[in-house]
Amino acid sequence: AIINFGSINIDHVYQVDHFVQPGETLASTHYQQLLGGKGANQSIALAQAGADVCHVGSIHENDAAFKQALIKKGVDCRGVKCSETPSGHAIIQVTPSGENAIVLFGGANQTITAKTVMQALDGTKPSDWVLTQNETSSIDQVLRQAKEKQLKVAFNPAPMSESVKSLPLECIDLLIVNETEAAALTEKDSLDDIVAVFKEQWSECEVIITLGKAGVMMLKNNDCIKVDAFLVDAVDTTAAGDTFIGYFLSAYSNHTDAKRALIRGCAASAIAVTREGAAQSIPTQKEVDRFLAK
Ligand code: ADP
Description:
This protein is of the alpha/beta class. It has helices at 38-48, 64-72, 114-121, 139-148, 179-186, 191-201, 240-252, 258-273, 285-293, and strands spanning 2-5, 9-15, 30-36, 53-60, 76-83, 88-94, 100-105, 129-132, 152-155, 174-178, 206-210, 216-220, 223-227. The strands form two sheets. The chain has a nine-stranded mixed β-sheet with strand order 5-4-1-8-9-10-11-12-13, with helices on both faces. It has a four-stranded mixed β-sheet with strand order 3-2-6-7. Adenosine-5'-diphosphate is lined by residues 178, 210-213, 215-216, 229-230, 232, 234, 237, 240-241, 244, 266, 269-270, 273. Catalyzes the phosphorylation of ribose at O-5 in a reaction requiring ATP and magnesium. The resulting D-ribose-5-phosphate can then be used either for sythesis of nucleotides, histidine, and tryptophan, or as a component of the pentose phosphate pathway.
């Protein structure tokens, strides 16, 4: 199984003519509530890719419908607890040109404790994987306890913050970053310099750098495996990384070789970028198979 310690957010999406200005009250022309959060998106991608995924997280009891939505996608939500703290949510303004401005409240995502982590990892087997991002509390505990239990640890430090550098990074088996996160983590600008730092300082760990429409690169045992992105007409790249991670990790944790797993991740995320939205843009396994057969 893959145990994903991750955020569950409610995205409140408002269409506006322009971003609200200081002191202004602005009427929105359209409103939508969507399930979001990098954690939830990755769990959905894992489940759609066929993985056995247990989500560990927290939402307010009034928002049980969002937990049901995850369950409906095939995610085991026994580790999702009800909190008295409001659910994590994002207030998203979208302008006609597609630009967005976002206010994020971590809320219940920040109520995960060392005890939650301990309980969630109770009864796991060494063949299990643990996955986490940077949108929930007690990430240091997730990394440490998973390593102690000799589980495989995958970490996606998104959104990137300075605090990531003080985490017990030696506990990680697989690091997955986009170019921005890679640059912040290594404090380098060019891809060559970034790769050099990973090769030198992260040699114990496998590293995947996703490169948007340039595809993906994986550093593994002194090898550098590169896979091109598929050529598609992108309309919305939201959740591209989350889709890649879910599809890659589902295959890789099931002993598919690295190159093939990378190709599946790229295919799934290429489909996702041709569709609007986050969770709703993540393809099914059938769609990915059909896309790869073309
Ligand atoms: P993130 O969404 O985390 O910023 P990336 O932008 O690197 O991550 O995208 C993740 C993966 O999605 C890429 O490795 C690539 O396979 C795929 N992808 C992203 N943008 C495109 C695109 N325009 N065309 C095809 N594939 C894309």
